[in-house]
Amino acid sequence: IGCGGSMTVQHLDLFSGIGGFALAARRVGWKTVGFCEIDPFCRRVLARRLDCDRWVSLPGSVDRGEEGGTAGLEELVELAPDWLVIENVYHTWRRWVPELRRRLLERGYSSLPLRVSAADVGAAHRRARCWLVANPNGEQLRELSWWWSREAREVAAELAESWDSAPRRLGADDGLPSWVDRRRALGNAIVPAAAELIFRGIEAVSGRR
Q1: Burial class (CB in 10 A: 0-12, 13-18, 19+), 117
Q2: Mean pLDDT (whole number) for 30-47
Q3: DSSP 163
């Protein structure tokens, strides 16, 4: 996520899936400038639902041609983003969070681990996720930690009221073929409101909200 001095925050969506991060970015007024995704079904969803017209392969990533690419920490840091937001399932956090925080610190990024479940923002299921938020400015992360302990719950409640979270039948017609691929993509997807909660915190400590 690049804030800089621009009024429009630029958001690069990596390992995009079916676009949960991009939907959250849109809701806070950020511009998604590119997607990186290798799964053909997910790419069709992004193209249809988010008018995606820019696919990126990061420098040093495994080149997959039209399929996009994969990226490691070195390639991300080379882009010098103002913020990094990394998400994974919560129950595995001990396997990756401590080491990733150490590697980020070596490259000049302080980080803050946060736990957000889908249920925290109104979903009917739990789906706990660990979110690692990184920034080269340690003071902004301290402000984010302060915001998280005091304001995040109220914002989460507001987000829970902002969308229809009623369960849907997986076989419902959404205009996209392949029920099996659709089920897999939905099972791996994030709840956009959960990412939006993180993004709202970044907006608040960046003086933009």
Answers
A1: middle
A2: 89
A3: S
Stated pTM of the model? 0.82
| Distance from C-alpha of 130 to C-alpha of 124, rounded to nearest angstrom | 19
Task: Calculate the CA 23 to chain-centre distance.
Answer: 9
Per DSSP bridges, beta strands 31-36 and 10-14 are parallel
- Compute the distance between CA of residue 149 and CA of residue 128 in angstroms, rounded to an integer: 18
Q: Which two tokens stand for residue 146?
A: 């302060």
Query: DSSP E strands: which ranges in 59-156?
Result: 62-63, 69-70, 84-89, 110-117, 128-135
Quick check: 129 and 194 in contact, CB under 8 A? yes
23-32 pLDDT tens trace: 999 999 999 9
Q: What is the pLDDT of residues 125-176, one digit of tens each?
A: 888 899 999 999 889 999 999 999 999 999 999 999 988 777 666 555 555 5
Find all residues with CB under 8 Å of 20, minimum gap 6, and list them: 189, 190, 191, 192, 195
